[in-house]
Amino acid sequence: MKNIIRKLYLPILLFTLSQFSFAQKTAIKGTITDGKTPIEFVDVILKSTADSTKTANYTTTDVSGNFALENVTSGEYLLQFKLIGFKINTKKIKYTGTAISLGTIILQEDANQLNTVVVNSQKKQIQKTAEGFVFNAVSNISQSGGTAIDMLKNIPTVSVDADDAISLRGKTPLILINGKNSAITDMNQIPASSIESIEIITSPTAKYDANAESGIINIKLKKNNLNGINGAAVLGGGFGAKGRLSSSALLNYKNDKWNVGLAYDNRFAGRTKSIEGDRTNYFIQDEHYIHQTRSDQRTEGLQNLKFNLDFSPNERNTFSFEALGNLENKDNEETLKTNVYNDSDAFFSANQRHSSEIQKAKAAEFSLNYDRKFSDDRKSLNANITSSFNFGRENTNIDTNNYDENGILIGDTFWQKTHNYGKENISNAIVNHAFPISEKSTIETGYKGTFRFFNSDFQTADLINGDYVVNPLASNIFDFNEQINAFYGLLNSYSGSKDNQKWKYNVGLRAEQVSNNGKTENGSDNFSNHYLKLFPSASVQLNLQSDEFLKFGYSKRINRPDLDDLNPFVDITDALNPHSGNPYLKPEIIHIVELNYNKEWDKYSLSGNAFYRNANNTIRQYSTLQDNGVVLLQPQNIGNMVTYGVEGIFSLKPFSFYDANISLTAFQQNISATNLPQSEDVVNSAFSWYGKVINNFVPWKDGKLQIIGNYNSAVATPQGKRIPIYNVDMGFQQKLGKGNARLGLVVTDMFNTLESGYKNNTLLFKSNRTSKSDTRALMITFAYTFRSDFKEKLLENQFSTE
Q1: How much is the pTM?
Q2: Burial of 97 (0-12, 13-18, 19+ CB in 10 A)
Q3: Cα-flanking dihedrals φ and ψ of residue 125, to 5°?
Q4: φ and ψ at 474, to 5 degrees?
Q5: N or C: which end of the chain has fewer CB within 10 A?
Q6: By CB neighbour count within 10 A (0-12 exposed, 13-18 middle, 19+ buried), where does 463 fall?
Q7: Residue 162: phi, psi to the nearest 5?
């Protein structure tokens, strides 16, 4: 850590001195307000009247609404002020070399945009939409140097437990990358520095995949759309229990027809984890009580390379190509100690199992997109083809030693080898078309084809007489193919005038035809499913005022089991607590009703939701005690589950130097486990809640401080509950010189409180387990850009509707 700080200190010092030494004279300055208060983050764009397609200079307003343009050559210009939720203000400027002060400029709110973007008290952190909200990723400065998982932990209404399981309203959401299904399903494969925004869709219409019971999380990766050559570089270093290092670099060129960008991110870290568990088997005499301790020492490496190419032959047509490459490696040294006692509390057995695991993964994604614009902005056409690939290889060497009650080795070491090789391809073909059918009504229609191919090769070999012999009972190959063809139609309409829409309606229908099949090489598991299902959706919205509305909606959705749920291979890393998938799972069918209220005041805003969800064939993880004392964890269709609750997001900006976002989700779950033979084991009623508080401070000029607190209450599992989790993260960022550079400090899990665990209690056994990783860590980051018109897009990463 000292070496990293020493290496960073000199260039930061030299750069800061150079910035003050060569400061430019202010050419054009002013202050922007909404007529009442200053507005931060307004885009200030200077363009030459001789060529208005190119940006001559660029900046944004600070927390006091002030801006200053420097290094401007004499000439005639157009000066534009742009911010989502406000009308564009344009002024003609003639600069002769003498400084110009424009005084106070007032931006007028745009009533049309406010119909869909109503939370603007924090205009750059959260953008409310008709289907949820968009979170500006860089506003979460407390996760610099982290991954998408770290980012999601601090987004309102999203719950992420200490084992990285993501949920919305108590269920796993559908996760998309740039609006499309991807083979990149591990959110730790995506660096936080590559994310532009994260869209949370809690009320999807028929336009979206029906496989989204609790909603959709769409992760949008960075892409620049500003003219000229632009670039940035970020370097970060720090430590938890072990050292961590991350860096990123971006380069982009754009003119009136071409836009070419290249970005690289990496992240390297060492991590530790300790786990402790106990289990009592009520009706087994010998293996009655089991105590286990586990220690993990892990190293991680992640690298991403992204390329984008856009071509716009004219104002109406745009062709885009994107490619993403990903390399990941995880090496883990795991030691598991197990002590077993009989029902008289006498020693029965003990062993120590050491696993040396090497994981390597490669992923690639390619996307070709076409956009067509029309003179009528209600009409649009978009087509997209995407294909992503994921190749993973995991090799593990395992040695097990048995001990007597005095800790003396018994017998010889038992050696094993396992490998798990996976190949996955997901391709999407998408066409969306919208067109008006009357002055107040439009129709959206489209097609989406999703094609998935998966192969998993799992093998276990035991060392016998000096040779490794494959165990046929624990080795197999699993192939899975799935094809989903979906068509949708959506009618949007409103009453009143275009600028004052009193009522808004939409009615939609989505049809999804699914065909999938899976088989194992040895024939132990074979299945095939073919079905066509219809998914209606409807909503009605009453705009009480331009800044207040009520919305009521209904939708039918499905929860199809994912590959981890279906893969039948049994993971034997912990021989007493193995887990596997279930290839015979049926999809859940869910009916959802929601009521939404949104209101905005001058310095406050509120978004509240009440929701009801009724699911048949609910899929939950379920533990079964075997005759030999082993507990097998496997997903099952346990029965019916009704969930109802409320969700709220409250934003406030009482002072110019402070703003906050408070979110809370609370829900009740009632479970009827009629599909299970021992349904009396299942928890049939549970209440859960979780909340977040995001505090943003401006302690002084060009400085930002962020403190985020998370709390997740105990969450019900089918046979018990997960323990509560809570943590506090802190981030600080300081502009250096004229703003081309930033210095950041991040402390995650400041009080080292984040841990996971569960407690189960059934008729046959009770168990508990806690897991603690080195989640408390410190990171220092330094970022620098060249060409000032790009610096705010990269380092502030402002939200854009483009």
Answers
A1: 0.77
A2: exposed
A3: -105, -50
A4: -120, 20
A5: C
A6: middle
A7: -70, -10
Nearest to 101 by CA among 34, 42, 26, 44: 26
How far is residue 317's CA from residue 320's CA, in Å, rounded to a whole number?
10
pLDDT (0 to 100) of residue 63? 64
| Angle, alpha carbons 64-709-245 (nearest 5°) | 85
Query: What CA–CA distance (Å, rounded) separates 391 from 303?
Result: 15
User: How far apart, in Å, are the Cα atoms of 522 and each of 176, 473, 478, 526?
Assistant: 34, 10, 9, 10
383 vs 362: CA distance, rounded Å: 27
- The reported pLDDT for the residue numbered 116 is 42
Identify which of 63-67, 264-268, 274-278, 301-305 has the greatest average pLDDT. 274-278
Task: Convert the pLDDT of each residue in 623-652 to its tens digit.
Answer: 888 877 788 888 888 888 899 999 999 989
Bridge partners (DSSP) of residue 760 are 720, 767
- What is the number of residues in the chain? 802
Q: How far is CA 665 from CA 112, 156, 445, 649, in A?
A: 30, 9, 33, 9
Per-residue pLDDT tens over the stretch 562-590? 777 888 877 766 777 888 888 888 889 99
- Nearest-angstrom CA–CA distance, 447 and 382: 11
* Mean pLDDT along residues 510-531: 88
Nearest partner of 215 among 716, 594, 690, 562, judged by Cα: 594
Under 8 Å between Cβ of 623 and 116: no
* Predicted local confidence at residue 121, as pLDDT: 36
Name which of 282, 422, 277, 299 is nearest 759 in CA terms. Answer: 277
Angstrom distance (rounded) from CA 245 to CA 779:
8
Question: What region, left, alpha or beta, does residue 157 occupy, with left being phi > 0 and alpha being psi -120 to 50 degrees?
Answer: left
HSE-CB at 673 with a 13 A cutoff on CA atoms is 20
The beta-strand segments (E) located in 437-475 are: 441-464, 467-470
